[in-house]
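Workshop exercise sheet. Pairs work together: one partner reads the sequence aloud, the other fills in the structure field after running the prediction. Swap roles for the next sheet.
Pair: D.N. / O.F.
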Amino acid sequence: MAFNIGINVLETDGKATPSIQGAATSVAGFIIRSERGLAGKVTQVSSPAQFREHFGMPFADGYGALALQGFFDNGGPPRRRSRTAARRASP
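Structure field:
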């Protein structure tokens, strides 16, 4: 099985406990490195400009912001986003 860069989903036989809670297949999820944002607070984002307003500029070596841009360019609905950060990270 070929893997793509990013998050890969592996189906199991159902005997193992899932590591993440399941969601509807119509729900998109993004993991994007950002320079700021309140950790653990969910924020609705409806455009790349709004993402930058809440979370700052994306890192130059990451592709998450480009994926989000493509998502909205292709008619994707607003997303809710939360920041996960190390305890020493700035808000």
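Discussion prompt: Residues 64-73 form the longest helix (10 residues). What would you look at next?
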